Amino acid sequence: MGKAGEGADVHNAGTEGDASTNPRDAADRGHDPAGGPYGPEFLDLERELAVFLRRARASSGEMAREVHPDLEPAAYGLLVRLEEAGPQRATELATYFGVGKATMSRQLAALETLGLVARTRDPADGRASLVELTPGGRDRFTRVRQARRAEYGRKLAAWDRGEISELARLLHRLNGLGNTED
């Protein structure tokens, strides 16, 4: 349940209990309101992912503003990647995030302007450059990330470590689906 002023909890919103209009009730009866062959577990998955993604977008915006008030939420993920993978070429970052080179170039230029990243010459190819976190960018990012991990620790305090590991494993597996072509 959300705190007062945060809006309704989508898990309890709508026509709960009205079997004629509640999609979950229809799914329980073996009918997918969307007309597909999938069972209620897919409706549950869709609903939970929608809530998770909405909250993740909001959280990314909050974390981005904590790093720098002018940091765009989408650029926060670049800081995560650079922290985890080290210096990268812009083309590698664009491929990793599935965006075009022009989009990546704009995002990196904004991060450079904010002093969070810098470009250095690629020792493997002097014509190319690598993007890396600046010391100030790393400090800001690390401070925000540590605060976020502490928050996760508080929220998941009742979970055992095996459940947390399983959630991470399943999310990793789900995220891997985005890298495959049908």
Description:
With 182 residues, the protein is mainly alpha-helical. It has a single domain, classed as Arc Repressor Mutant, subunit A (Orthogonal Bundle). It is 58% helix and 8% strand. Strands 1-2 form a two-stranded antiparallel ribbon. α2 (40-67) packs across α3 (73-85) and α4 crosses α5. The model is unreliable at 1-21 (pLDDT under 50).
Q: How many distinct folded domains?
A: 1
What's the SSE pattern? HHHHHEEHH
By CATH, the superfamily comes out as Winged helix-like DNA-binding domain superfamily/Winged helix DNA-binding domain
Outline type: globular
Structural class: mainly alpha
CATH architecture: Orthogonal Bundle
How many DSSP E strands? 2
Mean pLDDT metric = 83
Write down the CATH class: Mainly Alpha
Proportion in helices:
55-70%
| Number of helical stretches of at least 4 residues | 7
**Rg from C-alpha positions?**
21 Å
Concise summary:
With 182 residues, the chain is mainly α. The protein is built from 7 helices and 2 strands; from the N terminus they run αααααββαα. A two-stranded antiparallel ribbon has the order 1-2.
Notable traits:
Arc Repressor Mutant, subunit A; 182 residues; single chain; disordered N terminus; 7 helices; mainly alpha
